[in-house]
Amino acid sequence: MTTKTLCEVFRSPRKAGMYLYVKREEGLERVPESLLTVFGSPESALVLVLDPGRKLAMADTATVLGDLESKGFYVQMPPASFSESLLSSLTIKD
User: Fold this and answer.
1) φ and ψ at 44, to 5 degrees?
2) Can you name the residues that pair with 9 across neighbouring β-strands?
3) d(C-alpha 53, C-alpha 80), whole Å
4) pLDDT at position 3, please?
């Protein structure tokens, strides 16, 4: 038996690519005020049904579902840009 969760995803007005996932029926009630201060005023981006078999483009579905159960929210951070990931993979020698 698969558990389906109705999820609402909010985008951050302060940081491009930062998203906040919550259970639709709980809304933002379990999201800490300190996170909302950093995140900015959440802008609803979409509502979707999550189940363990669903693939997400930028997040692991099992992690999202686990965080929704345990914490009441999941934060998706923006991916590192290509140049940032290239720089972080380089070893600089003196």
Assistant:
1) -60, 125
2) 21, 46
3) 26
4) 81
